[in-house]
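Deliverable D5.2: sample structural annotation.
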Amino acid sequence: MQVQRVLETENVLAFYHTRPFYEEHIVVIPKKHIVSIITVQQDELEIMIEIFEVIRTVASKMNEEFGACTVSTNVGNYQSNKHMHWHIHYGNRIRD
């Protein structure tokens, strides 16, 4: 599936959600498969730093444009996709 990239680094990809729940909805993922934030291993901490740098950059831009945003991730049964991902979104919910 092709996605509209927002920001890409060596280990991280940020893209517009393919089925957004909010007016502005960006997803950040590691390129390496990591199940969730609670399964991160010691040797993956550098990837986590890179993820948070991308989240900070994307959230800062969204905050500058709209004055606010939400950053979140899910764990366990709340996590529909078993690949760690972070949501950065703003605006009204546009679907359930």
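Annotation notes: The first strand starts at residue 5 and ends at 8. The first helix runs from residue 45 to 66.
The annotation will be released with the project's public dataset once the embargo ends.
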